[in-house]
Amino acid sequence: MKILITGTTGYIAKRLVPKLLNDNHDLICCVRDLNRIPENLKEKEKISFIEIDFLNISNVNIPYDIDIAYYLIHSMSTSSSNFEELEFACAINFKSLIENTNCIQVIYLSGIVNDQSLSKHLKSRLRVEETIQSKKYYTTTFRAGIIVGSGSASFEIIRDLVEKLPLMVAPKWLKTKTQPIAIRDVLTYLTLSIKKKALYNKSFDIFGPEVLDYKQMLLQFAKVRHLKRVVITLPVLTPKLSSYWLYFVTSTSFKLAKSLVDSMKVEVIGKPSEINTIIGVEPISYTEAVEKAFIKIEQNTIISSWKDAIISGVYNSKFSDNINLPQYGCFKDIRRKKVIDEDFTMKRIWSIGGETGWYKFNFLWKVRGIIDKLFGGVGLRRGRRHQTELTAGDALDFWRVLLADKKNKRLLLYAEMKLPGEAWLEFRIIKGILYQRAVFRPKGILGRLYWFLVLPFHAFVFSGILNALIVDDKVISKN
Questions:
Q1: Distance CA 162, CA 244 (A)
Q2: Is the separation of the CB atoms in 326 and 437 below 8 Å?
């Protein structure tokens, strides 16, 4: 079966692709930027990639002989104020392209839309569902609520709340009821629905076996983690205050926090159907889903994270436009040092940030993260998806990975913190020399002032990192 997949670098698709490959399908994956192809998929057989932006499909061709197409494009945390129109435009363009192929079935993952007062995002997803319907192919829509899995937005936000706050004074929407579903079950529905005639031109709600409110989800999560937590709900927190509460306590961006609060006020209860019998699946409980997520975390095998979506930060350009560091109108801090052990240095570079930290003056990086958070930035709380692996598009604290090229020994990061300008940080080994380049392109007088204010810290912060990448001070001190 030849299958087209959209949203390839998103949370769901990154997990769906390996499953479809294991089922021996031929895959055509759509990406906005060929530089963002996940490393674990680049060398795979039976998979090809095409660069396409569904907001602009001029001069775009997709293979005629596809059998199935997955529509997995969402914009939960987009910075655009008119995200509904953008999602509608993507759906229109997707439909026009697919109608010119031999596609039999389009499978779409949407959200449960049974409440009378839907959030903007759920209204938009319903509109997309209606838009992609066609007389030239069949559609199958699965409507899910909260998806629980390692790296999912809901899982990571609840984890932040539970593990950081012994006592939570929370908004009243914690009493809103929902039906969480495990990511493994979502993937089962998506993969086993291929060419199922009983599912043609139909929509199905998919959900776990329990109806829970968000407070119950927090407390059950805490129980799995063997933590005692107290949750008190207050009716006085406005949606805006609730958004700030989520933003400052968790790793979410403010835009996503605002979208989540908007959605969390709406009950997400699924309508029963025969879908479980047709597919042959028994969804697991919320507690079991959390337990399985932590098994993945403990094994360090998280495949995808919501934080790696570009819309979770501020970067919105093609990576290929920025993998060459700018030369003009920039301030630069360039340092170099001879490498003693390349394997050691490469491991240190690829492990930087997250739980490992920045090797030297970590407290200063934390202070910078707090300042960034106070000014509406992403801060340091995103961490990183994997302790030792990096790929283009990954979030790394308040950086975005533009290039992670082990073959050419180069790691390039782009700053997603709030800055009066743009900043890059590069690590590269050339002929046994490690080059560390910090480049800042200021915006106006404020940008220039910012550079000179932080310049005194560069002398020890950047030199400290460079030295730590060459030699482990802890090992020296032990000897």
A1: 17
A2: no
